Each structure stands twice: as C-alpha cells, then as structure tokens.
Amino acid sequence: MEDIRKFLNNLTNRKQMIVLVNVLAICVIVYLIYASFSLWENIFSLCMTIIKPFLIGFIIAYAFSPLVNYLENKKMPRWLAITLVVSLLLVAVSLLVISLIPMLYNKALELSGPLVGGLMELQELSKEYLNIDISLIVDSAIEQMTLWFSNLSFMDTTFGLISTILGKIGGYIINLILAIYFLADYRRIHHWIGKLAKRVHPNFAYCLKRIDQELMSYIQAFLILMVIQGAIYAGIYFVLGNPNWLLLGLLSGLSCILPYIGPLAVNALGIITTLGMPFYKLILLLVAIFVQSNLDSYFITPRIYASRIEIKPIWTIFGIMTASTLFGPWGIIIAMPTLVIIKITTQTIMEIRTQKRSM
C-alpha cells in the first residue's frame, strides 16, 4: 500500500508524467504499426511500383548525362547527342541479347549428353565402391533435366510467354522514355535540385554536391575498369581458341556491375563453354582466371578506384541482395551506386561535424 502511495505521489511530478505519457504513446504507435503491418506493406509496395520507373529513368539519365554533355560540348545539338547515345545503347543491348541467348541454348544442348552420362557413371561408382544406391536420385535428376531441355525451345509461342515478354518490353520502353525526358531536361532538373537543397539546409546542398562529384568519379572509374576487364578476358579466351571469345569478353566487362557475383557467373559460363575443348586448355583457363582474379583484387581495382569509394565485400553483397529484393533486376544495377552514395554521405556528414568542432 505504501508503494502505491509513493507511485501516485510521483505522478504529480510533471516531468515524470510527460515521460510516462511519451512511453505509452510510443508503445501504442508500435502496436498500431505491428497490427497494420500488412497495410503498410501494401502501401509501400504501391509507392515503389509508382516510383520505380521514374527512379530507373533518372538513374539511366544520370549515368549517360556526362557522355551527352561531352557530345554537346563538341558542338553537337543536345537532341542529336541524346538520340545517338540512346541508339547506341539499344543496339549494344540488342546485339548482346541476340548473341548470348543462342550461345547459351546451344551449349546447354551440347552439355545435356555429358551431364546425363556423368550422372550414370556416378551412380555406378557409388554402387560399386560405396554400396550406396542413388538410382532414385539420378533418375529424378535426369527426368528434371530432360524436362528442362525439352522446354528450352524458341518455338514456344504460347500466349502466356508472349504476354510476359510484351509486359517486360513495355516496362523497359517506359523506363527508356523517362530516361530520354530526364536527359533532355537534365540541366534544369540538376539546377532545381541544387536550389531546393539550399532551401532545405546549406549543408544538405554541400552534401549533394559532394555526392554528385564522387558518383561521377565512380562512374568514370567503373567504365575504365569495365573496358580493362573486358579486354583482358577477351584476350584470354581468344588465346585459348574459344569461339565465343568476344561475347565472353563483353560479358566479363559488364559483370563489373555486380562485384564478386558477376565475374563468378561469367567465369562459370566461360568454363562451361570450354568443356568441349582439350583438357589442357581447361586447366590453362582455370589458372588464368585465378591469376586474373588476384591481379584484379590487389592491383587493378585499387588503382582505378579511389580509397574514398571502395566498398567492403560484405557490404557489397548485402547491398546487392537488398536492392535486388526491392527493385528486381534493376536493383542489382543500382546497388553499387547506392552504396557509394551512402558512403559519401556518411563521410561528408562526419567531415562537416569535424569542421564544426574544430572551429
């Protein structure tokens, strides 16, 4: 009884009453958010669906604006520079897709026989030396492979497939149209964002300016690294006599978009396409990939990227997985620039705080 009386007396203290009310309010807010989580999830998903095309279009415009500005500085009209850049982009993507799909299709068909034979041999070895019967597993794997290869046909023109392809193409066309609009009006948009940032806070404008400068440096470094990687791997596959050396070189360059994951996937593709060649060439390819990977990690990439925009591997993988979950395939592309923005923002805020403390 005495404790209750003390508690009621303490409630008369205004500060303690305010603290208690705030705690109760926070608890109520947390509970309401938890209870309506599905509603907020749907709202977030709807907002992302609306914002995503504009975000992707602006990112494309931002990435190619330096090239458009360069052509414009060479006395080329801006509309013509935009048309030229967009046309080259469409041609490059079309050629890459047209070349890549037949190669993957043919190699998959070529490997179907050796894969089935390898599974049968593995079944016999397991039975003979380990006395383990894996026939059910092997039969199931062969059945799945047969089903997959039978479905892997370009003659599949079902309405479901056609509607899916048209839907994807329609989405990409919308992104491209928005990118063209942003490119055409990029300078005015850039100036408007700067003025708006100054109205919010001078430090915010300074932070955006630093992000813009460092992100442009990152894009330039990325393009240089992409060319170097593509040239080196194209040379490796050319020397080994791989008929798809040019395509594999282009894919190796583009794989820089996905650090660690992209090069690994392209190297796996290169190894698969080399399986039909003499065994010693496969060994040489594995050695070349090992040497080039270490050369890239410890020499090429550190010299191209400034230490300011280097991202640790764990954060890179986390960023790629998170962005791909939120934005799909486009999220994989914007993951690294987003990580660079976060890092530059953090560094700039720390610099501003350090300057204020030293004053």
TrEMBL record:
Keywords: Cell membrane, Membrane, Transmembrane, Transmembrane helix, Transport. PANTHER family: PERMEASE PERM-RELATED, TRANSMEMBRANE PROTEIN. Its main location: membrane. GO terms for cellular component: plasma membrane. Signal peptide: none annotated. It comes from Candidatus Fimiplasma intestinipullorum. It is found in: Cell membrane. It is a multi-pass membrane protein. This is AI-2E family transporter. Belongs to the autoinducer-2 exporter (AI-2E) (TC 2.A.86) family. Pfam families: AI-2E_transport. The keyword Membrane applies. InterPro entries: AI-2E-like (IPR002549). The chain crosses the membrane at residues 20-37, 43-67, 79-105, 159-184, 218-239, 245-266, 278-295, 315-342. The keyword Cell membrane applies.
